[in-house]
Amino acid sequence: MSKIHKCGTVALLGEPNAGKSSLINALVGCQVAITAPVAGTTRDAIRGILNTEQAQIIFIDTPGMQKATNLLEQKMNRMISGAVKTADVICFVLDVNRISNKTLTKLANYEDFGVPVIVVISKTDSTTPAKLFQVLDQLKDYSFVKEFIPISAHKNIGLKTLIECLEKYLPVGVAIYDDTMYTDSSERTMATEIIREAIINQLHDEIPTGIKVVITKYETEQRTTVIDADIICDKPNHKKIIIGKRGALIRSIGMKARQKLEKLLGQHVMLHTYVLVREGWRDQATWLQD
Ligand SMILES: Nc1nc2c(ncn2[C@@H]2O[C@H](COP(=O)(O)OP(=O)(O)OP(=O)(O)O)[C@@H](O)[C@H]2O)c(=O)[nH]1
Ligand SMILES: [Mg+2]
Protein backbone atom coordinates (compact mmCIF):
# COMPACT_ATOMS: atom_id res chain seq x y z
CA MET A 1 0.00 0.00 0.00
CA SER A 2 1.43 3.41 -0.92
CA LYS A 3 1.91 6.00 1.81
CA ILE A 4 -0.39 9.02 2.10
CA HIS A 5 1.21 12.00 0.33
CA LYS A 6 1.36 15.38 2.03
CA CYS A 7 1.84 18.82 0.52
CA GLY A 8 1.84 22.19 2.19
CA THR A 9 3.47 25.47 2.99
CA VAL A 10 5.76 26.20 5.93
CA ALA A 11 6.44 29.86 6.79
CA LEU A 12 9.88 30.49 8.32
CA LEU A 13 9.48 33.45 10.67
CA GLY A 14 11.73 35.11 13.22
CA GLU A 15 13.88 38.06 14.15
CA PRO A 16 16.32 39.56 11.63
CA ASN A 17 19.51 37.47 11.51
CA ALA A 18 17.91 34.46 13.25
CA GLY A 19 19.18 32.12 10.53
CA LYS A 20 15.98 31.67 8.46
CA SER A 21 17.62 31.95 5.04
CA SER A 22 20.51 29.69 6.03
CA LEU A 23 17.91 27.17 7.20
CA ILE A 24 15.86 27.23 3.98
CA ASN A 25 19.05 26.71 1.95
CA ALA A 26 20.13 23.80 4.14
CA LEU A 27 16.67 22.20 3.97
CA VAL A 28 16.34 22.54 0.21
CA GLY A 29 19.96 21.53 -0.35
CA CYS A 30 20.99 24.49 -2.49
CA GLN A 31 20.99 28.27 -2.33
CA VAL A 32 17.54 29.76 -2.86
CA ALA A 33 17.99 32.69 -0.46
CA ILE A 34 20.94 34.96 0.23
CA THR A 35 22.49 35.08 3.69
CA ALA A 36 24.69 37.58 5.52
CA PRO A 37 25.79 38.51 9.04
CA VAL A 38 23.79 41.77 8.87
CA ALA A 39 20.12 42.08 9.85
CA GLY A 40 17.60 42.81 7.13
CA THR A 41 19.16 40.71 4.37
CA THR A 42 15.97 39.08 3.11
CA ARG A 43 13.46 41.52 1.60
CA ASP A 44 10.96 39.26 -0.14
CA ALA A 45 9.11 36.05 0.58
CA ILE A 46 11.22 33.40 -1.14
CA ARG A 47 10.05 29.88 -1.79
CA GLY A 48 12.23 26.81 -1.48
CA ILE A 49 10.78 23.43 -2.40
CA LEU A 50 11.74 20.13 -0.81
CA ASN A 51 10.44 16.80 -2.08
CA THR A 52 10.67 13.86 0.27
CA GLU A 53 9.25 10.38 -0.26
CA GLN A 54 6.19 11.36 1.66
CA ALA A 55 5.69 15.03 1.00
CA GLN A 56 6.31 18.18 -0.95
CA ILE A 57 7.23 20.89 1.54
CA ILE A 58 7.09 24.47 0.27
CA PHE A 59 9.16 26.62 2.62
CA ILE A 60 8.67 30.39 2.56
CA ASP A 61 11.63 32.38 3.80
CA THR A 62 10.57 35.80 5.09
CA PRO A 63 12.26 39.07 6.07
CA GLY A 64 13.10 39.37 9.77
CA MET A 65 10.32 40.84 11.92
CA GLN A 66 10.99 44.47 12.75
CA LYS A 67 9.20 47.74 13.31
CA ALA A 68 8.98 49.49 9.95
CA THR A 69 10.75 52.83 9.68
CA ASN A 70 10.34 53.32 5.93
CA LEU A 71 8.22 52.12 2.99
CA LEU A 72 10.67 49.32 2.20
CA GLU A 73 10.32 47.88 5.70
CA GLN A 74 6.52 48.26 5.51
CA LYS A 75 6.64 46.22 2.33
CA MET A 76 8.86 43.64 4.07
CA ASN A 77 6.31 43.36 6.89
CA ARG A 78 3.54 42.80 4.33
CA MET A 79 5.64 39.92 2.94
CA ILE A 80 5.62 38.33 6.41
CA SER A 81 1.83 38.73 6.81
CA GLY A 82 1.28 37.30 3.33
CA ALA A 83 3.45 34.27 4.08
CA VAL A 84 1.70 33.65 7.39
CA LYS A 85 -1.74 33.76 5.74
CA THR A 86 -0.88 30.99 3.30
CA ALA A 87 1.03 28.82 5.80
CA ASP A 88 -0.10 25.36 6.87
CA VAL A 89 2.61 25.33 9.51
CA ILE A 90 4.50 28.18 11.18
CA CYS A 91 8.15 27.54 11.90
CA PHE A 92 9.43 30.19 14.29
CA VAL A 93 13.22 30.41 14.20
CA LEU A 94 14.91 31.47 17.47
CA ASP A 95 18.64 32.17 17.56
CA VAL A 96 19.88 30.18 20.57
CA ASN A 97 22.14 33.09 21.54
CA ARG A 98 19.55 35.87 21.27
CA ILE A 99 16.31 34.95 22.98
CA SER A 100 14.78 38.08 24.48
CA ASN A 101 11.39 38.86 26.00
CA LYS A 102 10.62 40.95 22.91
CA THR A 103 11.21 37.91 20.69
CA LEU A 104 9.11 35.68 22.92
CA THR A 105 6.24 38.19 22.73
CA LYS A 106 6.38 37.91 18.96
CA LEU A 107 6.24 34.13 19.26
CA ALA A 108 3.24 34.37 21.61
CA ASN A 109 1.30 36.27 18.92
CA TYR A 110 0.93 32.99 17.02
CA GLU A 111 -0.76 31.15 19.88
CA ASP A 112 -4.29 31.43 18.47
CA PHE A 113 -3.37 31.53 14.86
CA GLY A 114 -5.06 28.27 13.99
CA VAL A 115 -2.07 26.49 12.46
CA PRO A 116 0.57 24.34 14.18
CA VAL A 117 3.57 26.29 15.44
CA ILE A 118 7.01 24.65 15.59
CA VAL A 119 9.93 26.42 17.25
CA VAL A 120 13.32 25.90 15.67
CA ILE A 121 16.26 26.79 17.88
CA SER A 122 18.99 27.76 15.45
CA LYS A 123 22.81 27.97 15.52
CA THR A 124 23.19 25.28 18.19
CA ASP A 125 26.73 24.67 16.93
CA SER A 126 27.62 28.01 18.48
CA THR A 127 26.52 27.18 22.02
CA THR A 128 27.01 24.61 24.77
CA PRO A 129 24.59 21.80 25.69
CA ALA A 130 24.06 23.52 29.06
CA LYS A 131 22.98 26.78 27.40
CA LEU A 132 20.68 24.88 25.02
CA PHE A 133 19.09 23.10 27.96
CA GLN A 134 18.59 26.47 29.66
CA VAL A 135 16.87 27.84 26.53
CA LEU A 136 14.57 24.80 26.31
CA ASP A 137 13.69 25.31 29.97
CA GLN A 138 12.91 29.00 29.30
CA LEU A 139 10.47 27.92 26.57
CA LYS A 140 8.60 25.27 28.54
CA ASP A 141 5.61 27.54 29.30
CA TYR A 142 4.84 27.99 25.61
CA SER A 143 2.59 24.96 25.57
CA PHE A 144 0.84 25.95 22.32
CA VAL A 145 4.10 25.18 20.49
CA LYS A 146 3.84 21.67 19.06
CA GLU A 147 7.56 20.90 19.06
CA PHE A 148 10.91 22.52 19.87
CA ILE A 149 13.65 21.43 17.51
CA PRO A 150 17.31 22.43 18.00
CA ILE A 151 19.15 22.69 14.70
CA SER A 152 22.32 23.92 13.06
CA ALA A 153 22.00 24.87 9.41
CA HIS A 154 25.77 25.15 9.13
CA LYS A 155 26.50 21.72 10.66
CA ASN A 156 23.40 19.93 9.32
CA ILE A 157 22.20 19.09 12.81
CA GLY A 158 18.51 18.42 13.47
CA LEU A 159 17.35 19.01 9.90
CA LYS A 160 16.12 15.44 9.37
CA THR A 161 14.17 15.62 12.63
CA LEU A 162 12.67 18.94 11.56
CA ILE A 163 11.60 17.58 8.16
CA GLU A 164 9.99 14.48 9.74
CA CYS A 165 8.20 16.72 12.23
CA LEU A 166 6.86 19.00 9.49
CA GLU A 167 5.64 16.01 7.47
CA LYS A 168 3.45 15.10 10.46
CA TYR A 169 1.68 18.46 10.49
CA LEU A 170 1.27 19.09 6.76
CA PRO A 171 -2.11 18.48 5.10
CA VAL A 172 -2.70 15.54 2.79
CA GLY A 173 -2.31 16.59 -0.83
CA VAL A 174 -0.61 16.04 -4.15
CA ALA A 175 2.54 17.96 -5.14
CA ILE A 176 1.95 21.45 -6.52
CA TYR A 177 5.36 21.95 -8.09
CA ASP A 178 7.23 19.72 -10.50
CA ASP A 179 9.66 17.59 -8.50
CA THR A 180 12.67 19.01 -10.37
CA MET A 181 11.97 22.53 -9.05
CA TYR A 182 13.69 23.80 -5.91
CA THR A 183 12.38 27.37 -6.08
CA ASP A 184 9.85 29.39 -8.04
CA SER A 185 12.18 32.41 -8.25
CA SER A 186 13.30 33.21 -11.79
CA GLU A 187 17.00 33.07 -12.68
CA ARG A 188 16.91 36.84 -13.13
CA THR A 189 15.54 37.36 -9.61
CA MET A 190 18.15 35.00 -8.19
CA ALA A 191 20.87 36.87 -10.09
CA THR A 192 19.68 40.16 -8.57
CA GLU A 193 19.88 38.65 -5.11
CA ILE A 194 23.32 37.12 -5.68
CA ILE A 195 24.70 40.53 -6.68
CA ARG A 196 23.13 42.08 -3.55
CA GLU A 197 24.61 39.29 -1.41
CA ALA A 198 28.10 39.95 -2.80
CA ILE A 199 27.69 43.64 -1.89
CA ILE A 200 26.30 43.03 1.61
CA ASN A 201 29.01 40.57 2.51
CA GLN A 202 31.74 43.07 1.66
CA LEU A 203 30.21 46.09 3.37
CA HIS A 204 29.54 46.88 6.99
CA ASP A 205 27.36 49.04 9.19
CA GLU A 206 24.19 50.65 7.86
CA ILE A 207 25.04 50.67 4.15
CA PRO A 208 23.66 47.22 3.16
CA THR A 209 20.07 48.05 4.12
CA GLY A 210 20.24 51.10 1.84
CA ILE A 211 21.18 49.13 -1.25
CA LYS A 212 19.02 47.90 -4.07
CA VAL A 213 20.09 46.06 -7.20
CA VAL A 214 18.23 46.49 -10.48
CA ILE A 215 19.14 44.36 -13.48
CA THR A 216 18.77 46.47 -16.61
CA LYS A 217 20.04 43.91 -19.15
CA TYR A 218 19.87 40.14 -18.99
CA GLU A 219 20.64 38.46 -22.28
CA THR A 220 21.92 35.03 -23.13
CA GLU A 221 24.12 34.87 -26.21
CA GLN A 222 25.28 31.36 -27.08
CA ARG A 223 27.20 30.21 -23.99
CA THR A 224 27.40 33.61 -22.25
CA THR A 225 24.88 35.53 -20.19
CA VAL A 226 25.37 39.29 -20.26
CA ILE A 227 24.09 41.05 -17.16
CA ASP A 228 24.04 44.81 -16.57
CA ALA A 229 23.13 45.75 -13.01
CA ASP A 230 22.53 49.11 -11.36
CA ILE A 231 23.54 49.24 -7.72
CA ILE A 232 21.36 51.90 -6.16
CA CYS A 233 22.53 53.44 -2.91
CA ASP A 234 21.07 56.00 -0.58
CA LYS A 235 23.87 58.52 -0.09
CA PRO A 236 26.75 59.94 -2.17
CA ASN A 237 29.35 58.79 0.38
CA HIS A 238 27.96 55.24 0.15
CA LYS A 239 28.71 55.28 -3.57
CA LYS A 240 32.34 56.14 -2.81
CA ILE A 241 32.56 53.30 -0.29
CA ILE A 242 31.01 50.74 -2.66
CA ILE A 243 33.42 51.69 -5.44
CA GLY A 244 36.40 51.65 -3.10
CA LYS A 245 39.93 52.89 -3.62
CA ARG A 246 40.60 52.94 -7.37
CA GLY A 247 37.54 50.73 -7.86
CA ALA A 248 38.99 47.86 -5.82
CA LEU A 249 35.83 47.04 -3.89
CA ILE A 250 33.40 47.14 -6.79
CA ARG A 251 35.81 44.90 -8.76
CA SER A 252 35.92 42.42 -5.92
CA ILE A 253 32.10 42.53 -5.55
CA GLY A 254 31.73 41.95 -9.29
CA MET A 255 34.17 39.02 -9.23
CA LYS A 256 32.45 37.28 -6.30
CA ALA A 257 29.00 37.80 -7.83
CA ARG A 258 30.14 36.60 -11.25
CA GLN A 259 31.64 33.38 -9.83
CA LYS A 260 28.38 32.57 -8.07
CA LEU A 261 26.27 33.50 -11.10
CA GLU A 262 28.34 31.22 -13.32
CA LYS A 263 27.72 28.38 -10.87
CA LEU A 264 23.99 29.11 -10.82
CA LEU A 265 23.57 29.48 -14.57
CA GLY A 266 26.13 26.87 -15.60
CA GLN A 267 27.70 29.18 -18.16
CA HIS A 268 30.02 32.13 -18.68
CA VAL A 269 28.72 35.43 -17.30
CA MET A 270 29.69 38.96 -18.29
CA LEU A 271 28.65 41.24 -15.46
CA HIS A 272 28.72 45.03 -15.69
CA THR A 273 27.85 47.03 -12.58
CA TYR A 274 26.97 50.73 -12.28
CA VAL A 275 26.70 52.47 -8.92
CA LEU A 276 24.00 55.17 -8.72
CA VAL A 277 22.76 57.39 -5.89
CA ARG A 278 19.01 57.78 -5.38
CA GLU A 279 18.56 59.46 -2.04
CA GLY A 280 15.56 58.23 -0.06
CA TRP A 281 14.68 55.43 -2.49
CA ARG A 282 13.46 53.29 0.42
CA ASP A 283 10.57 55.71 0.86
CA GLN A 284 9.64 55.99 -2.80
CA ALA A 285 6.96 53.62 -4.04
CA THR A 286 8.29 53.55 -7.60
CA TRP A 287 11.66 52.21 -6.40
CA LEU A 288 10.01 49.49 -4.36
CA GLN A 289 8.19 47.98 -7.31
CA ASP A 290 9.94 45.01 -8.83
N1 LIG B 1 27.06 29.41 13.80
C1 LIG B 1 26.01 29.43 12.99
N2 LIG B 1 25.69 30.56 12.34
C2 LIG B 1 24.61 30.56 11.53
C3 LIG B 1 23.81 29.39 11.35
N3 LIG B 1 22.80 29.71 10.51
C4 LIG B 1 22.97 31.01 10.18
N4 LIG B 1 24.07 31.52 10.78
C5 LIG B 1 24.64 32.88 10.60
O1 LIG B 1 23.71 33.85 11.04
C6 LIG B 1 23.76 35.02 10.21
C7 LIG B 1 22.38 35.32 9.67
O2 LIG B 1 21.97 34.26 8.84
P1 LIG B 1 20.75 34.41 7.81
O3 LIG B 1 20.41 33.05 7.39
O4 LIG B 1 21.06 35.43 6.76
O5 LIG B 1 19.62 35.00 8.80
P2 LIG B 1 18.15 35.50 8.44
O6 LIG B 1 17.27 35.13 9.58
O7 LIG B 1 17.72 35.02 7.10
O8 LIG B 1 18.37 37.08 8.43
P3 LIG B 1 17.43 38.23 7.76
O9 LIG B 1 17.21 37.87 6.33
O10 LIG B 1 18.25 39.46 7.92
O11 LIG B 1 16.17 38.26 8.57
C8 LIG B 1 24.78 34.71 9.11
O12 LIG B 1 26.01 35.26 9.48
C9 LIG B 1 24.85 33.19 9.12
O13 LIG B 1 26.11 32.69 8.69
C10 LIG B 1 24.21 28.18 12.01
O14 LIG B 1 23.61 27.11 11.90
N5 LIG B 1 25.30 28.28 12.83
MG1 LIG C 1 17.13 36.06 5.46
Q: Which strand order does the major sheet show? A: 2-3-1-4-5-6
Beta-strand percent range: 15-25%
What structural class should be given to the helix and strand makeup? alpha/beta
H-E order: EHEEHEHEHEHHEEHHEH
Q: How many DSSP-defined strands?
A: 9
Low-confidence stretches: none
CA distance, first residue to last residue: 47 Å
What does the largest sheet look like?
6 strands, mixed
CATH topology name of the largest domain, in short, is Rossmann fold
Full CATH superfamily name of the largest domain: P-loop containing nucleotide triphosphate hydrolases
Number of structural domains: 2
Mean pLDDT across every amino acid position:
94
Describe this entry's structure for a reader.
This protein is α/β, with parallel strands linked by helices. The protein has two domains: 6-169, P-loop containing nucleotide triphosphate hydrolases (Rossmann fold, 3-Layer(aba) Sandwich), CATH 3.40.50; 187-288, GMP Synthetase, Chain A, domain 3. Helices cover 34% and strands 24% of the residues. The strands form two sheets. Strands 2-3-1-4-5-6 form a six-stranded mixed beta sheet, with helices on both faces.
